[in-house]
Amino acid sequence: MSTLSLTGKPNPEAPVEGAPSAGPAVVRRGGRLGRSRTGVRVMALGGLGVVALAGALVAGTVPRLRQERAVNAEAAAVASSAPRVTVAVARAAATDAQRVLPGNALPLLDAALFARTNGYIKARDVDIGDRVTEGQLLAEITAPDIDDQLAQARANLAQSKANFALAQANAELAKITLDRDIRTGPGTGVSQQQIDQDRATVATSLAQVESTKANIQVNEAAVQRFADLQGFQKIVAPFPGVITARNIDPGDLVSADSPNTSKELFHIMRTDVLRVFVNVPQVFAPGIKVGQSAVLYQRDTPAKQFPGKVTRTADALDPNTRTLLTEVQVPNPDNALRPGMYLQVKFVFDRNIPSVLIPAAALATRTSGPRIGVLDDQHRVHYRAVELGRDYGNEIEVLSGLKAEETVVVHPGDDLPEGTVVKPVAPTK
Asked: Are 87 and 379 in contact (CB under 8 A)?
């Protein structure tokens, strides 16, 4: 039977009739215990979260603080240390210098052959590309009129020689007559007038002898002239070489002594030795000496080189180009080089003044002139005025103010004043 509460409603917590009395008490104790354990668990989890969050904050903050301290310490060390600069060691230049200049190759001998007699081409024995020797017959001209004129000149010479003999005989007769009349004397059948006429006859005869003698010389010269013209009917090579041009064929008419209006018969070049002409700039001209060696090669095949020698120079600079015309002869027995080629000529000059080479970036240009920063034994920077030579692009030649094996500053800039202590660093290769 259920009990009623003070409000008159049934009390759910009242013991039920016939039920065990210990049941409701156990239920009440179990509810309080569950709520107590749940709270403890929540508090424990919250504490663990707080601890984990604190650990995470500590784990992220401590390394960052350590890194900041390391960076600050390194920055302070760098700020208090000497500046780092790139340096290089000045090296001595070679005792000789090489210069490569362009040159134009020409044959040792070059001739254009023209006709010296009028006529027709009878035969042609060579063509372009043929190699000929000195005196070799190239072509022959037929000129019958020259042959006839030579025959006439020879006949005139024979006639003048006969007249000379006649004049000598007349002169001899005149002398005999004069001597006889003189021995006879005036008053013995010979008058003085006759003797005077005999003397005049002797003089006239002697003059006739001299005249015929001169006439003989004239006729001999005429014979020689026509003989020479007849010799010009044969075109021969004046020197050994190669035929580079041929403008005639058998039957062509050729005219003498007209090089301006007619084409050349042949063109011949001697190529076993070539002459290479080089225009040497003024800066290199004092180093050119007759007899010095040179090396020649083609730009496309620099490994194949040919030895040459300076044979002559103009000995004066061209006022328009300020260059010295220099001739270099190079043997060409195998015909490996051809006339008209564009060649590279390498000269080797002896250095009269020792010099050193430094990187171009080591030069500091100031209003007072070029200067170079040099390090002493304590790594202090000292600027020196120097005299510069040639500029090779990456390197500069120093003629005075610097010695070999001295250390120079590369890229000195304006932030390295005189006496600054620096930390040298070798350049990166």
From this structure: no
- Terminal Cα distance for the chain, rounded: 109
Look at residues 211, 236, 261 and tell me which one is the last residue of a structural domain.
236
Which of 196, 221, 236 is the C-terminal boundary of a domain?
Answer: 236
Task: Tell me the average pLDDT across 9-24.
Answer: 45
d(CA 375, CA 380): 5
Angle value at C-alpha 120, between 119 and 123, nearest 5 degrees: 130
Give the structural domain span for 404. 354-425
What kind and span of H or E run contains 383?
Answer: strand 381-385
Q: What is the mean pLDDT of the segment spanning 3-11?
A: 44
Class of residue 254 by CB neighbours under 10 A (exposed 0-12, middle 13-18, buried 19+) = buried
CATH number at residue 405: 2.40.420.20
Domain membership flag for residue 370: yes
d(CA 108, CA 241): 10
Share of residues in the chain with pLDDT > 90 (%): 36
Most distant CA atoms of the chain, gap in Å: 236
Token duo for residue 296: 């020649």
Q: Are 108 and 274 in contact (CB under 8 A)?
A: yes
